[in-house]
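Re-run with default settings, no changes from the original entry. Doing this only to confirm the output is reproducible before filing.
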Amino acid sequence: MNTSNRGMDGAMRKVEAEGGCGVVGLACSVPVVGRHILVPCSQMHNRGNGKGGGLAAAGLVPEQMGVDAAHLTRDYLIQIALLDPAVRSEVIKQHVEPIFDIHAGYRIPTVDDYRDIPGLEVAPPDVWRYFARVREDVLGRFIEDQRLSALSRQAAEDEFVSRWAFGLNRRFYGGGRMDAFALSYGRDMLVLKIVGYAEDALRYYKMEDVRSRIWIGHQRYPTKGRVWHPGGAHPFAALDVALVHNGDRIAISVSRRRIDLLVDDAELARRRRASRPSADRPARGYARLYAEHVLQADQGCDFDFLQGS
């Protein structure tokens, strides 16, 4: 009887009852190979539809990245995705070589044919990886022009790289061009994303044997809009680009529906002074929709017009 009832219950349950994105991660005191995130990602297909997914890794192994430990720790690990490989020369000559001191750079390996991965319907972009620092003369002019002398040189360099990535994306991905974009930038971390499931990204870019102390897999569940494109699929990784920074402590109260940032007012004021957001408000499109209608974190980060009455 119990077995029969369980069978009836399963037959009545809707197969795709869940929606929204799915995230899974693992962390270890020693580097572990990427294949350990494969099965957990594949078990989240009820949290994704194969139209956008990705993975992140942090705490990498220098030898596998082609650099020594010092450069892995201190350099920016920048990854540029080329949707049109023909623009690589333009990207390098205009946005990489005049800006950075490059300590290592290479195209990350992939499988020969993306169609060899079952279910992968869209060819992922070529991704070029660079270990670099902003040239001293370039950074010096930036600090002077933007009046950022109150910042530490490291903080000013972080700000420069954030603006650099925005400019590259605006030039090569904005306005319908969609030729290239800054896929991720940070220190000792990387992100890969594709039009597909998270584990497809791991397999396509041959990350199964790459070792890292932290792995994160992310399944997207896009339903509307042009989020199927690799430049629009989450996740995207960057440095501190807001008043809340990586490593800040927070306090969460579910009963009071509050998330409190445990950073004192003086530090927040300093960050506001250092931040120079664009004065241009989006006039149309998804950017304007996001700016005007997305709710705060304690309300679910959803569009206000999707709330029930």
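The first helix runs from residue 2 to 12. The CA atoms of residues 100 and 134 lie 4 Å apart.
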